[in-house]
Amino acid sequence: MEPDLNTGAAPDPATESPAAGPAAHATGPAGLLATAARGSVRWETGLGLLVVAIIIFGAVTSPQFLTSGNFFNTGVTSGEIAIMALPMTLIIISGEIDLSVASILGMSSALLGVLWSHHWPMLAIFVVVALLGIVAGLINGLLVTRVGLPSLAVTIGTLALYRGVALILLGANTVSNFPATYTNIGVLPLPHTQIPYNIAIFVVLAVIFAIVLHSTATGRSIYAMGASPEAALFAGIRVKRVKTMLYVVSGLVCAMAGVLWTFRLSTAVQNNGLGLELDVVAIVLLGGVSIFGGRGSLAGVVLAVIAFAGLQNALLLTNFNQEATGIVIGALLLVSVFAPNAGRLWRAGPPRWARRRSGHRSPAVGGGT
Amino acid sequence: MTTTVTERREPAGPPAGSGSRRLTERVFRVREFGIIAVLLVFVAVTTSIQPSFLNQQNLQFLLINTTVYALLALGETMVVVSRNVDLSIGSILGLSAYVSASMFGHHPGIPIPLVFLIGLGIGLACGMANGLMVAVGRVPSLVVTLATLYIIRGIDILIVGGNEVTAQTLPNSFTNIPRATVAGIPYLAIAIAVVIGIGAYYMRAFRSGRELYAIGSNPEAARLAGIGVGKRIFTAFTASGAIAGVAGVLWAAQYQTIDSTAGTGYELTVISAVVVGGVAIFGGSGSAVGAAVGALLLSSINSALNVLGFPQLWLEAIAGFLLLLAITLDRIISVRLMTALRRRSPGVGT
Lengths: 369, 350
Hints:
The structure holds two protein chains of two kinds.
Chain A: H1 21-26, H2 28-61, H3 68-93, H4 101-117, H5 122-145, H6 151-170, H7 180-183, H8 197-215, H9 217-227, H10 229-234, H11 239-265, H12 276-286, H13 298-317, H14 325-348, H15 352-358
Chain B: H1 3-9, H2 13-49, H3 56-81, H4 89-106, H5 112-135, H6 141-160, H7 172-175, E1 181-182, E2 185-186, H8 187-205, H9 207-217, H10 219-224, H11 229-255, H12 266-276, H13 288-307, H14 314-344
Antiparallel strand pairs in B: 1-2
Helix pairs in contact in B: 2-13, 2-14, 3-8, 3-9, 3-11, 3-12, 3-13, 4-5, 4-6, 4-11, 5-6, 5-11, 8-9, 9-11, 12-13, 12-14, 13-14
């Protein structure tokens, strides 16, 4: 809807910046992808340099940083967050948001605990937990696409609802008598490697998500609907169906993350993963994905995952108050949102005021339908 | 400079507005009455099952528990109405609560108003930082306040550094603030109600307050109408931060044990209250009174579940369900309204 207001000032291709939406609409999905790629490549280079800087910082300040044991620890503690960042990336690119991810993790963990304490066979539990994740995602998706509610509000609601279900399921109880075959994933790597199980799953999923996002028609349609839901609809894309699918996939993946989390800590409690949703969103945005949708790449998010994990680990090893890593994460988040803008404003120079009045970047919360 | 644009646009305005105004107003009123009606029905049902729900002690407890949330909801309403969101209020509350309460330990005998001023100052500074980044940097408020949520909490953690303020270091005159009552009603609840009333009146009646709604309804149109969008948004975030700062001091007086986790997660609870109270998450409608009633409703549910002997565990799920119900109803009402408007004046509201 916003780009319509730009008809008075037709964008000149010469001054067109990678971040500018309106020009992309004019050139169709292909041009949109090209501009998206150009914009994100630069950001990924910056992130790559950041990762290198963090590794150098870690290696210089702590002799343990580059050991294989530390590699395992770093990976295993951020595996679930990394896994949940994958569907979140697709959802944010499609112009929506899902704040209920950590609650779905907690709810799945609670269900896993309850069913195990009732002596269900593990395989049946996996099926039921997966179904729970699918249903949770479906509820999100249907409320957003079919009822037409803003995803920010819906998923704040389901954040409380799903966490509430976890509370009802498990109460103040803790289930921790899981068999060692499963809980070993928290302490043992894949045989003959130093790779934790959850990171291995993350890598496999990341490849699948990258292929879907970057080399399939569905992936292209996700960018299109994020850039302009109406244009995507008129182009024949089944916006509602794709978005519902994204939420369902997110629910399923988060349920899996819940299972991994439970086994890794060998505990099912109702507050498992409490508050992780903001970490996940922060990683995705740090990865260069635009909160307005339509821009970003999976490679950027993977780099952001590495930066996030590496930074937390480096600060932990250097005896920096680890909780206060929030300052660094927050600062990086601000850089991630200001850097593209600063670049554009700097390049644009004086005409910025003209562009400002046509205002395609109104300060608004995440894209709604 | 944009006045010419405004004048040119003027003639197109009234025909669309006057026909629909009565209907719009009615719906707004219904919406606010709706939440109050839900609250009254809820209280009535709960009291009929368990009369002790309305006894003085429980009522006082309920009001006091609501004050901090209702106050935060006022600031959040100003921000949400302008089509923004402030996620950093929980962190601001935590920082302000610790720093202001630790003053009693560092400077025994410090006057209480000064402590409130310190809390206000911390909140102001944080709110202005948010406002500057959103308004001048022109970046999405969701991202900015998510970042400041982390940063302010991080600063809080560094300052606290594993310590905590305990009740012994706080003077009685401070910890009694939430307990003082007049005719059985806590002073604090009355004061907060007055503040919310003033805030709601400001947003409803003053030009700069109305402009927040205009910005939230359509930022582009607001800019073309000559409204200083950046300035107003900056003010909204500053107010939200300042309110969170004061709320932090009240939080300290109420809970008396303050560590670095104070106020964690409050942002989402407050946004829930605001949305349940009828403020549209994408701006342009709703009132601070509705938001405060939303906060009161959430606390009442909490208290009722207690009184009725429900396990406390059900609270969160019910709160989430209620939020979903509220926004779904809101959506249905607005869809009906659009249909009604179209029927009344063809060509409007496409």
